[in-house]
Structure formats: C-alpha cells, structure tokens
Design a protein that fits this description.
Order of helices and strands of chain B: EEEHEEEEEHHEH
Number of strands of chain A: 12
CATH class of one domain in chain A: Alpha Beta
CATH topology of one domain in chain A: Aspartate Aminotransferase, domain 2
CATH topology of chain B: OB fold (Dihydrolipoamide Acetyltransferase, E2P)
Largest interface: A-B, 13 and 13 residues
Distance between the termini of chain A: 29 Å
Helix content of chain A: 25-40%
CATH architecture of one domain in chain A: 3-Layer(aba) Sandwich
Number of helices of chain B: 4
CATH architecture of chain B: Beta Barrel
Shape of chain B: globular
Shape of chain A: globular
Strand order of the largest sheet of chain B: 1-2-3-9-8-5
Largest sheet of chain A: 7 strands, mixed
Order of helices and strands of chain A: HHHHEHEHEHEHEEHEEEHEHEEHHH
Largest sheet of chain B: 6 strands, antiparallel
Radius of gyration of chain A: 25 Å
CATH class of chain B: Mainly Beta
Structural class of chain B: alpha+beta
Number of strands of chain B: 9
Strand content of chain B: 25-35%
Helix content of chain B: 10-25%
Number of helices of chain A: 14
CATH superfamily of one domain in chain A: Type I PLP-dependent aspartate aminotransferase-like (Major domain)
Distance between the termini of chain B: 17 Å
Structural class of chain A: alpha/beta
Number of domains of chain B: 1
Oligomer: heterodimer
C-alpha cells in the first residue's frame, strides 16, 4: 500500500485551520500543563482531504457492495437517517441543558423506548448502554441485582450455549458469575437433555441467542425458558440476531426476561455507521425496576393545548448509570427514523426478506459447500469452508479469494462448533441480482479450490494490500507511532 | 493427524505422557490444527502449586480463537515450559515434543484411567467431524 501515515505527510509550519475569534474571555492554560514535545501532524486542508479520500478508496464499505458478514447485519444505512441526525435541534443539544429546553429530544427517546417495548415484547426499556456487549453486561448485572435483591445469593453460575457469541461468557465472567457451557444438539438447538441436568438453585440464568449463531431458530425455545424459570433462573436474550424476528415474534413473548437491542444493526447504521453503536436494554415486569437510569417518562400528561412534559426518571431498584449522560443519542435518532420510515408492516417485511435472502443463498450453495446443520435458516447460515478432496484449502483462503471478486468476505471461523466456518448474512438489503452474483463467485471459488488451489492460497491478488501476515499482526504489536521521550 | 500411541488423551484435547509418577501435559495435533497459528501462551499456575484435575493451567491464543488448557490430572506442578511464552508457534510445530506445557507430580494416578488411549482418541476426533 502506497499511502503514508498522516504523520509522515506532515510538513513543519503547514496548517489547515484558522481559529475563529474567541467569543469568551481568554484564560491562559496553567504553565505546568504546557508542553512543546507533542508532534501533531501539520498539514493543509487539501492534504488532509486527499489523504482520507485516498484511504477511503482502499476500503470496502456497505455503500460500495455486498457485506455478508454473519452476525453483524451489515444492512444499508438509508441516507435519510443522516439527514435527521443532523437536524440542528438534535445535533446541537447539550446533555446539561435544562430538560424543558430539550423536549423534542426527550420526545424522540420516549417514543423510541415505547417502540422497542412493542417490537420486542417488554415492559420497559433503557436506552443507556453504549453498544451490544455493553447491553449484555447491563442485562447480566440486572439479573445479579434481581437475585441479590431477593436475598438469593447462592446463584453464582450462568449457562451459556456453546454456539454463543464470545461476548456472552466474557460478560458473565465480568459480572462475577461462573460460566457453565451447554452443548448444541444435532439439530442445532440447545441440548435439552443436558440443560435439564445442569439446572439447580445455583443457576442465576441462561444467556441465549435466538436465532442462534448457526442462523437457526431454536425450536425448543419455549421449553428452554420454561425450564430455566422453573429452576428459579432468568433468561438473558442476546438481541444480536433480532433482525430475523421483527414483526414476526417477540423475545418477551418467548419468555426472555432481559434483552439488548443492537440499534446499530437491526435498525440500520451497521457497525455504528462508522460512529458509535447503541445497545438499549428491554426488561420484563420482573426486571424493569433494575434498569439503568435515568429513563425517559411522561412527567405531566398533555392536553389539547399543551404537549406532555417529558423528563428523566430513575427506576426503583436501578443498577445505576452505565454510561455518562443518556447513551449514544445520534444513533437513537437514526434508529427512530428507520423505524418511523418502515412502520410495523415494513419492519415485518425486513425480517421476511432477510430470511428469504439467506435461504435463497443457502439453497444456491447447497451441494457445493457442506452445510453441517442443514435446515431452513433464519437471517444467516453457516457452511464449511473446506473439502476433503481439496485438503490444502481452508476457510480463510476462500475469504481472501472473495476479495479478488470484489465482495467482502463472510465472518470466518465462527461459530466455533463448525470447522472452518463461513457465516453468511446477506440481510434484506440485497437484490436477487447481487445474491446471484455472490453465489456464482462462491461456486467458482469452490471449483478453483479443486483445480487451482494455489490461486486461493496466495489470494487476494487484486486488492491494495495483499495477504497479510496474521501471526505477525497478532504477535508484533505496533500500536503507537510516536512515543514521548520521557516514556521511552 | 498425528496421535502417538504411547500417550493418553483427554476429551478437551490435552495429551499426557506418564513417566513414573510424573505427567507431562500438552495439547494434541488435532487441537493445534483446529486453533491454527498459535500466537500467545500463558501459564496461569506456578511451579509448586497444587492443582486438581480439570483445573485450568494455561491459556493459548491463535489468530482465530482463545482456548483454556486444563490439567487432566491432580498433583503438584513441578515444571512449566518457559520457552512457550516467547515461542508460542512451537505449539504448531511440535505439539508432542518442544511444546509440552507443564509437568505434574501426580497425587492420584488412578485419574489416568479416565483418559483415552490413542485409538479411543482417534475415533473421538473423527466423531467430531460433524
């Protein structure tokens, strides 16, 4: 890659910024805080614009093409989201403004909470958590608070299916619980027989993802939630795969007590749209008082002449704040816009088309790629990226070769219960033409794997950066381009 | 896949070499192949520690995944392979030799009866090819 770092492009004395006249009195900085050894890059505006434009052309993004990264729901982010998020009334509010002066923002947050409650079947929602894994941590801390509130201190273990996202066991460990894995049965569901043997009065709950990371709807979900409740445990739902369920079924109705939403994938702005994520948490009656606060509520009902007054309220047994201020508001505006633009019918169509697209791709790849848990899938599916009669080729080679054909690779090597997993999630965004183009390439790559494996082993050939050395990248960390003298 | 006949095997893919009352423990060829390139090794027990069977003794990380390594036997840790911290790639190159992880003076050698022999481990691995 030819593009130097912005530090290498620096030229002493060059500048791209003229500060405006200060409109407040100047106060000199304390002398002890001043330093002259901080080599910030010095560039003109055009240097900066060209540098980042060049970098962006080396990149791959959802505005460029298909991004079938399983479990990430890389759907298109409609441009109207960006327009509403930039409305001055939203973009220029300050979190310390008096509540009476930000009623529009509070209106949006309140109604987003209400919509999320309705979409997922919960009694209450808090918008605070910063992103998905943070929502998980919040939910599990609520489960812990619930048991402690009841004086039930012997519940120290959490059950986690072996198909779970890696963040689930990490969350439980961070919350002070012992992680107990639950195996997956041959159909790709939670193994009920083993689950029964694990349930006792030391189990605080289970963390379950439905559809799971194989892209399969757990056919025994009602039995799973019933058994866990019967044993006195609670059910955490990982909302990562909620896109498949919108308008069709609701996690709350399945017996899930607490769930995080990934606003930044289910409701567009995948991967935060380049910004932060947002991981609101929804709770059942039993857990709603433990939600992180504050949440937005109607303080005074409105009438014909006056709108309601919205304000912040702390849930009764709240676990407290989990984020400074109120969460990532800009992403809430985008999610609100997305839900408002689609409406209930539109949301259901999103789920139907996401599931249809995944099943279409799965059907086109069946026979060429081995599908270890082969049944009707939900929004994604997992194939094996290897063949017995092409022993040299592994999933990574297929992913790299896809880049030569101008597609972003799927998620690879996850879930861990499938060898050389390739996890493919097309989302509802893609047309049949795009799905066919991708399937054609996948089939062509499978043929190459058998006839010219070296093409895959040395791929990618047509990208700005060729095959990277992953071992070196993991072992030889260079995270800092400049180390201050005194820290060397 | 290489499965030496003289070793014992755990379902969690550790091997055990028995010499008198000393057990040497590492991970199998199958395990290193599944993990792919190993980039990190850290023992989480120290020489002199008393450990129980199934207790975690180390963590390995590859470019794909992280895995806990458990001791198949109980006893006292008498040696840890210091070379692995600097050269974790030995796990891929020589899983049964240079990449041994710890040595344990066994307190309950009958635990070895719970482990598989080479033939048992081979059929166990082929059964996992879903």
């Amino acid at each position: 890659m030819s593009e130097p770092t912005i530090f290498e492009l620096s030229s002493p004395g060059r500048t791209g910024v003229t500060f405006p006249q200060a409109d407040v009195p100047l106060t000199p900085l304390p002398v002890e805080l001043l330093r002259d050894n901080l080599p910030l890059p010095e560039l003109s505006e055009v240097d900066v614009v060209r540098h980042f434009t060049r970098l962006s052309r080396l990149n791959y993004c959802i505005d460029y093409g298909l991004y079938p990264l399983g479990s990430c729901t890389m759907k298109y982010n409609p441009k109207i989201n960006e327009a509403t998020a930039r409305f001055p009334g939203f973009a220029y509010v300050h979190p310390l403004q008096p509540e009476e002066t930000v009623q529009g923002s509070l209106y949006l947050m309140y109604h987003l909470q209400e919509w999320l409650k309705e979409i997922a079947g919960f009694s209450a929602v808090s918008l605070q958590p910063a992103a998905g894994a943070h929502g998980e941590l919040t939910g599990v801390l609520m489960i812990r608070a619930y048991h402690q509130h009841r004086g039930d201190t012997k519940r120290t273990r959490i059950l986690i299916p072996d198909s779970a996202h890696g963040t689930n066991p990490a969350t439980s460990a961070m919350s002070g619980f012992e992680v107990v894995p639950v195996p997956t049965d041959k159909q790709g569901n939670v193994d009920l027989g083993v689950l029964r043997t694990l349930l006792d009065d030391t189990i605080a709950g289970i963390m379950i993802t439905n559809p799971n990371t194989l892209g399969l709807f757990d056919q025994n979900i009602l039995e799973v939630t019933r058994l866990v409740h019967e044993a006195g445990g609670l059910v955490y739902g990982d909302g990562a795969n909620l896109n498949a369920l919108l308008g069709i079924t609701r996690p709350g109705d399945l017996g899930i007590d607490v769930l995080h939403f990934n606003l930044h994938k289910t409701f567009s702005t995948p991967h935060g749209g380049g910004g932060p994520g947002s991981g609101p948490v929804g709770a059942s009656d039993r857990l709603k008082d433990f939600l992180p606060g504050p949440v937005v509520e109607v303080l005074e009902e409105g009438d014909e002449d006056y709108p309601p007054l919205y304000g912040f309220v702390e849930p009764k047994h709240s676990i407290g704040r989990v984020k400074s201020f109120y969460g990532h508001f800009g992403i809430m505006v985008r999610a609100y816009t997305y839900i408002a633009m689609h409406g209930p019918e539109g949301l259901r169509k999103i789920a139907e088309n996401a599931v249809l697209n995944a099943n279409y791709l799965q059907a086109r790849l069946r026979g060429t790629y081995k599908i270890p848990y082969d049944r009707i899938c939900m929004h994604e599916f997992v194939v094996e990226g290897k063949w017995e009669d092409a022993p040299e080729v592994i999933a990574l080679d297929i992913s790299k070769r896809l880049m030569d054909y101008d597609f972003h690779p799927p998620t690879n090597y996850f879930p861990l219960i499938v060898h050389d997993a390739l996890m493919i999630e097309p989302t509802e965004t893609e047309s049949r033409q795009t799905l066919d183009a991708f399937a054609d390439v996948m089939i062509k790559i499978a043929e190459e794997a058998h006839t010219q494996p070296e093409l895959l082993k040395s791929a990618p050939h047509h990208t700005p950066v060729r095959r990277v050395d992953e071992v070196k990248a993991a072992k030889d960390l260079v995270l800092c381009c400049w180390i201050p003298e005194e820290q060397k | 896949m290489n499965i030496p006949a003289e070793l014992k095997y755990a379902t969690t893919d550790e091997w055990v070499k028995v010499e008198g009352d000393v057990a040497t423990i590492g991970i199998t060829d199958y395990a290193q192949d599944s993990l792919s390139d190993v980039v990190f090794f850290e023992a989480i027990v120290s020489v002199g520690d008393t450990i129980k069977s199934k207790q975690q003794i180390a963590t390995v990380e590859s470019v794909k995944a992280a895995a806990d390594i458990n001791s198949p036997v109980s006893g006292e840790v008498i040696a840890i392979n210091e070379a692995l911290a600097d050269s974790p790639e030995l796990v891929n190159k020589d899983p049964y030799g240079a990449a041994w992880m710890i040595k344990v003076k066994m307190s309950n050698p009958s635990e070895l009866d719970n482990l598989m022999d080479a033939a048992g481990y081979e059929s166990y691995c082929s059964g996992r090819e879903h």
